[in-house]
Structure formats: structure tokens, C-alpha cells
Inverse folding.
DNA sequence: AGATATGATCTGCTTTGACGATCATATTGT
DNA sequence: ACAATATGATCGTCAAAGCAGATCATATCT
């Protein structure tokens, strides 16, 4: 078994992409169940998480932040809006743009879904001791922070965003 | 800026899925370039990495390991085989299954692509100090090891696999 | 030997997501 | 104020990938 494990784990240990993909797959497997009440599934959840005024949350920014196409974002927000979880509102600073904001119902849905997602996250990191899991989360966040490519481009010029 | 950064980072810090996805996206952006000579791109590379006799590398196992559909795996291996990078060989232990093994040319291609992928990996983890990056790799591998769902099912009964 | 199970391939279907073009609205320059 | 420009949102098209079903070859069980 030890032979096999070491052989098997070799690619996972050396290949960052494979390990990341495996972990994300596992996460999404659980997240799909945890978010089956939300329109858009895991992606709808991510939008909901970020649909707050503090994030200058127009659709383009959200799309860029989550790495999905802006045309897909339209349908995603449509569905969330039809479900009454978010609402579109013209940005007072630039009324071409439309902010995507959680409604009260959206807050409640987020709280509930967040609880279930949290359980999934814990399950995904179940192979790590608590301290290691915490360290992993910290390093992951640090590595990911500057991941969104041209993230600050539109917020730099709008400080109050 | 600090306000914005903390707001912005909030989702990344608390939401495992979002951070994982952002990091993987970044990896794939680089990996696509790094593997543009290989059939199948990043996925072809992953297959190539795992196409070794030590991994009981039949197509079903590979597909499960990489989380891709078995019908897609057929085409993927077809392309790699046509490019002369791997060869199919009936498993002597079970001639229904076909082992996918790297050829000499495949080894060379893997070495070259691996070098470029390594650079991408380093870039992806560029936000971390070297020691932190190493820790992250270690924890990621540990968390991912038992990720492939029913991984051991077919190898448990074939010890020499 | 016959029945059943598994692996690989092939075929068709459906969904998803990305890309390009277009439309609507707001901002800027004169 | 009005044209020119810019930005964001939407629509239509298309390729990639997953999914289900059927077929064939080989293995295993009884």
C-alpha cells in the first residue's frame, strides 16, 4: 500500500494543477448539493457572496472577479433577480452601470447556503488537521489575492467604491 | 486602499471555493500557453504525466483520476497516440483494459512541458514566500490525496498495480 | 459451457460557456 | 445643447465537454 500510495501521490505532490483541480472538483461536488436551491448553483452562490455595495459590484466587476464571461453573468443575475435574491440598481456615481445588491431575502439565503457551504469546505479539508487546515486557508487566500488579473483597474479611480 | 483591499479580500479569505477557483484559473491561463504544443493542452499534459506503468494507467483509471469523462479520454488518448507520445497496450493482467504508456518521445515532451509548467506553477504561487509556497504545496497535496472519490476501488485488489 | 460483468469505443443529444456584434444609456468635448 | 465617445448590458452564434445508450471484446462466476 505504501508503494502504491507514494506512486499515486507522486503526481499530486509534484503537479500543482492536478492537485488544485482535484480539490476544486471535490468542492464543487459538495457545493452543487449545498446550493441546489439557489439559481445558478455554486456560481449563483459566489455572485450572492459578492453582491454587496462595498465591492463596487456591477456586473462587469463581478464577472471579472469570478472569472466568468460577462454575457453569462447577465443570465446569472437575471435568475437571481427573478428569485428575489438580488436587485439591480443604477450606480449613483455612474448610472450606466448597475449595481447588484442582495435583498433581505438574499441575505437570508446567503446565510443558509453559507452554513452548508462551510460544511462542504470543512469536508474538503477533512484530510488536514485543524491547524494545518487553517494554515492552508491562510496561504491559499494570500496566493489568490492578486489572482484576478486587472482587478483594480476600475476601482482605483473610484476611491469610495 | 486598505479598506478596499480588506473588503475585496473578504470573500477570498472566507470562501474556499472562490480562492481555489481563482488560483486554478490563473494556473490554466499559463498552462494553456505552456502546453500549446501538446494535443489536448493542459489535459493532455495531465494524461501524459500519469501515463506510467506504475499507476495502473488504464483509461478508466486515468479518467477517474483526472475527473474527465471516459468518452473524452478516448479522444484525448487518440490524439496523444497519433502524436506518438503515448502508446496503448493491452494490460497483460486484463486484456480488456489498455495501458496508456509514454513513449520515448513522450518522455521528452513531458520533460520539456514539465519545465514550462513548473515556471507557471512558480508564477501562480508568486505571491507567497518560498517557504510558504513549499508549505502550501505540501498541505495541498495532503488535502488532495484522498480527493479522487472511489480511487482505491480497482487498485486495492491488484496490489502490484 | 453459459451467463453475467467490465473495459473501450462509437454515436447522438444536450448543456455550458466563450466570442463577436449590437443596442441602450451615460459621459465628455465643443 | 448636441455630437462624439465610452461603458455596460444583451442577443445570436458556435465549439467544447459531459451524458446516455449501444456494440464489441474479454473476464469472471456458476
Amino acid at each position: 500500500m505504501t508503494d502504491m500510495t507514494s506512486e499515486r501521490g507522486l503526481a499530486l505532490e509534484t503537479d500543482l494543477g492536478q492537485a488544485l483541480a482535484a480539490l476544486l472538483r471535490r468542492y464543487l461536488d459538495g457545493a452543487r448539493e449545498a446550493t441546489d436551491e439557489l439559481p445558478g448553483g455554486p456560481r449563483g452562490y459566489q455572485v450572492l457572496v459578492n453582491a454587496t455595495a462595498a465591492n463596487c459590484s456591477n456586473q462587469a466587476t463581478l464577472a471579472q472577479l469570478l472569472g466568468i464571461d460577462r454575457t453569462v453573468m447577465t443570465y446569472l443575475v437575471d435568475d437571481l433577480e427573478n428569485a428575489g435574491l438580488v436587485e439591480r440598481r443604477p450606480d449613483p456615481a455612474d448610472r450606466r452601470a448597475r449595481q447588484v445588491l442582495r435583498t433581505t431575502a438574499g441575505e437570508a439565503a446567503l446565510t443558509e447556503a453559507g452554513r452548508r457551504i462551510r460544511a462542504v469546505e470543512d469536508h474538503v479539508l477533512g484530510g488536514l488537521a485543524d491547524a494545518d487546515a487553517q494554515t492552508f486557508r491562510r496561504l491559499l487566500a494570500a496566493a489568490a489575492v492578486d489572482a484576478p488579473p486587472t482587478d483594480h483597474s476600475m476601482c482605483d479611480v473610484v476611491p469610495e467604491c
About this structure: The first strand of chain B starts at residue 86 and ends at 91. Residues 1-9, 147-161 of chain B have pLDDT under 50 and may be disordered. The helical segments of chain B are 2-14, 16-34, 41-50, 59-66, 70-82, 104-124, 130-145. Chain B touches chain A through 56 residues (CB under 8 Å).
